[in-house]
Amino acid sequence: IYNTTRRMAFMKTPCNIGDPVSEVETPSLLVCLKSLEYNLKKMTETMKAFPGVNFRTHAKTHKCPMISRLQIKSGAVGVCCQTLTEAEAMVEGGIEDILLSNQVIGIKKLRRLAGLARYAKIAACVDSEGNIEDLSQAARELGVTVDVLVEVNVGGNRCGVEPGDSVLKLAEKIKSLPNINFKGLQCYNGKIQHIRSAADRKAAVGVVIEKTVKSIKALKDRGIDCSYITGGGTGTFQYEASSGVFTEVQPGSYVFMDVDYGKNLDVKEQFVSDFQQSLYVLSTVQSVAAGDRAILDAGLKAHSLDSGVPKLSGHPDLTYYNGGDEHGVVIPDGGLKVGDLVWLIPGHCDPTVNMHEWVVGLRDGKVECIWPVSGRGPGK
Ligand code: PLP
Ligand code: MN
Fold it and tell me: pTM higher than 0.90, yes or no?
């Protein structure tokens, strides 16, 4: 067991190394190691088609340094994190190159961020002048240098300044202050990852690229060279990678997959279905008393329902219905009996993982490893 933090050391694991799957207490998060390894290899091979473009895997998906280490071993240049807690967990787990693909607000948090730069290469995204000033101050206090990316609103309408002159203004601000280094642009649109039709998804990336190119031009016109452009997730990364504009992509979910990504429609040159489902929530049937339904011990506290209900692996004719915090309702009952194990394919992998303390790695039906989800928690 990799108890990489003391905080985790006293927490009870749901099983022991070497246990058969029948011994794993439920509900638990399982990962099929063969499928995980397949996905790692698939990403390495896929990215070979785009020389000069790196992949920096997103750790928000698993919040687990051990999985980041496997991703780096398979060719990732580093990781992205969405929260400071994830970044701290990654540094503790030995990850040496981290991009906070998000804004970190307030001097207290920025000191934590700058503190990490003592141990690892750290970059962060900004979209406001005050935040740039605070980041420079925190980095100066700690005697470190932090790389900074301007986040561009490339259509997601979340964070990021509008393409063009606003990007230039922030880049110039970064360049004017000490202990921070203008590194490039964050150009990610999360919404388009799940556009079902591959043609529409590709067209949506076209808009991302247009807005990115506009921003690069605004910088270039003022003599600022921008050689680092990062973005793209599991649904679109091949389009960004083949654009000639992006130098890095940030896929996360590919390592686990989920029901939502399974709904993306592919065409021949598409890729999402090339990844295998490796993540499951293991649950137990706790009641069949009603006679027409089976009740599972995994409810909405064991997996996230934000992108729809889970599927029952190996039971395509059975449907999961929300049964509340601790229950799942399966109709029809499909002959399930009390005590039977059911492998649920989560609707949405990232928030599901966040609910669990441990990822149990299985190979050939036996527990091979138990990894702490040490970066878990809300965005702190
Ligand atoms: N990059 C950023 C900034 C993200 O917010 C996310 C996920 O939301 C990703 C990359 C990874 O996306 P996915 O898990 O769909 O591959
Ligand atoms: Mn997601």
Answer: yes
Local mean pLDDT, 10-residue blocks, the chain (380 residues): 50 92 97 98 95 98 98 98 98 98 97 98 98 98 98 98 98 98 98 93 97 98 96 96 98 97 74 85 97 97 98 98 98 98 98 97 98 91
3-state secondary structure 175-215: HHCCCEEEEEEECCCCHHHHCCCHHHHHHHHHHHHHHHHHH
Residues contacting 288, CB < 8 A, separation 6+: 294, 295, 333, 336, 337, 338
End-to-end CA separation in angstroms for the chain: 26
The CA distance from 204 to 182, in Å, is 27
CA-to-CA distance for 234 and 210, rounded, in angstroms?
Answer: 20
Strand partners, 343: 282
Q: How far is the CA of 201 from the centre of ligand 2 (A)?
A: 16
User: Which amino acid is it at 358?
Assistant: W
Residue with tokens 């990062």: 230
> Would you state the pLDDT for residue 267?
59
Kindly give the number of the ligand 1 atom that is closest to the alpha carbon of 350: 14
Q: Please tell me the residue having the least CA distance from ligand 1 atom 1.
A: 250
What is the spatial distance between Cα 298 and Cα 265, in angstroms, rounded to a whole number? 29
Q: Which residue's CA is the closest to the ligand 1 atom numbered 3?
A: 101
